[in-house]
Amino acid sequence: MQVGRIVQVEPFPEAKIPAYIITVDFGEKRGTLRTSAQLTERYNPDDLIGKQIVGVTNFPKKQIGPMMSEFLMLGALDADNGTAIIQVHENVLPGTSIA
Q1: CA-wise closest residue to 68 among 37, 34, 39, 38
Q2: Coil, helix or strand for 40?
């Protein structure tokens, strides 16, 4: 698991359940990776830009409709308000390992 910074959020109209395509910078070693995340109930795209998140970056890639998911973004599943992303609130370098 590593810390990444969200750099881009796009709509994902092809998703069966409303979702975004999210691009995250994981630093020099891993670079930018994309994933799909069902965060539309809790967040607008602009709310997510710049947030430091926790991602699992060593899982195999997974095809989700027309896009290839390259990592898993961690979140807390809240049935009432939508998934809440797991964030790192202190400023650390993208790619920092989670202990």
Answers
A1: 34
A2: coil
Tell me the whole-structure pTM to 2 decimals: 0.93
Q: What is the spatial distance between Cα 70 and Cα 61, in angstroms, rounded to a whole number?
A: 5
Q: How many CA atoms lie within 13 A of 64 on its CB side?
A: 24
Query: Structural domain boundaries of the chain?
Result: 2-85
List pLDDT tens digits, range 21-64.
999 999 999 999 999 999 999 999 999 999 999 999 999 999 99
Fold of 2-85: OB fold (Dihydrolipoamide Acetyltransferase, E2P) (2.40.50)
